[in-house]
Amino acid sequence: MKEATRLTCYLPIIIVLAADLCVGIRFSAQLSEGSITDTANQQQLQTAVFALGSFWRSEAVFGCLDGVVRTTVGYAGGSKTNPEYRSLGDHAESVQIEYDPKLITFKQLLEVFWTSHDSRQVFGQGPDVGNQYRSIVFTNGTEESRLASVSKEREQTRSKSGIVTTQIQQLGTFYPAEPDHQEGVTVATCRF
To answer: Which parts of the chain fold into alpha helices (H)?
Structure first.
């Protein structure tokens, strides 16, 4: 029984580390392929921004999805101009996702968002506690707002043990984090 408890305790860490490995592998694959520089491909991309705890964890969650071309970690949802990691004001750690809508939709990204964190936790995720770790879906227009609201209602219906605290906000400015915080995920598929 103790072994099962230990496994349960370490499983989330193993998953995040495996995803982080995938992110690093994808980054090195991008350097050799160079295909993302094609401007025709870039014009078809769309952008989504989510906050679901630590931005490194968030990047690992979305970085290996088919159709995700690039992730950038940063700050959004606050009022401070030019936030930084040690001085981010009221911003949330966020991940900006560039994706090909022919391969993955905003609705599918929302499904990953809801299954990748506890939307009932107020101001934090697991051991990361604070305003900067709150749960937010940032939207870029009416259709994304509608999809986010419908998905939040569905998540609330599924949640039997609490109120979904995730906020839905129109995206203002997304501020990329400092270069040393970036993993640089830029290839559409994981390479193992």
So the answer is: 2-33, 39-43, 55-63, 106-115, 142-158
